[in-house]
Amino acid sequence: MTTFTLHDKDSAPGDSVPLMEQSEKAMGMVPGLHRVMAESPQVLQAYQTLHKLVLESSFDNDEKTVVWQTINVENACHYCVPAHTGIAKMMKVSDDIIDALRNETALPNERLEALRTFTLAVMHKRGNVSEEELTAFFDAGFDKRQVLEVIMVLSQKVMSNYINHIAETPVDEPFQKFAWEKTR
Which listed residue, 77, 113, 140, 182, has the most CB atoms within 10 A of its CB? Predict the structure, then answer.
């Protein structure tokens, strides 16, 4: 198996060092995912940029968590599910939402369930959603902007989930208590 380097500031390419410092400043550490991505400064920068844009999206913290974790769980990402569990707790998302997403059980309200259903439709159908699926999403109170933002979050998560699968990124110590495995 190919081993990917968990870079630190001494081993990373020079252009990755300021990006790693940015991660450390924002999160108090350089997450393992960012340490792997540091192999390519462009990948790390693209990921950080997408993450910033997701945080600035029209989704509230519960909705961001639903889209992130729906994708993480569907892609069975051993790294991102625990990491986003910790992040959701820091964002004050309720345990009812966090647990439902991790366990693939019903969310506590229809609006969030519609968001998860639509996110899964976009993933499974590679964007070829039906008019009925769009209408159900709009009927739940979402709009065209949020259709596009689901796709933006999916783009971010494809980067992280796929890189974590290939690199077998170890879960960071602060998130190990949220270890997860897909059960379905």
Answer: 77
For residue 94, give the 3-state DSSP assignment.
Answer: coil
Specify the residue for token string 């366990």. Answer: 103
pLDDT surpassing 90 at residue 183 = no
Q: Are residues 79 and 96 in the same domain?
A: yes
Dist CA 18 CA 167 (whole Å): 22
Tokens representing 127 are 């964007």
State the Rg of the chain over Cα. Answer: 17
Mean pLDDT score, 168-177: 97
Q: Which of 154, 166, 86 is nearest to 121 (CA)?
A: 154
Q: What average pLDDT does this structure show over 160-169?
A: 98
Same domain, 32 and 102: no
Cβ(114)–Cβ(140) below 8 Å: yes
pLDDT tens, 10-43?
A: 999 999 999 999 999 999 999 999 999 999 999 9
Do residue 114 and residue 23 come from a single domain? no
Cβ(19)–Cβ(45) under 8 Å?
Answer: yes
How much is the mean pLDDT over the chain?
97
Residues 30 and 73 in one domain: no
As a whole number of angstroms, the distance between CA 126 and CA 158 comes to 12
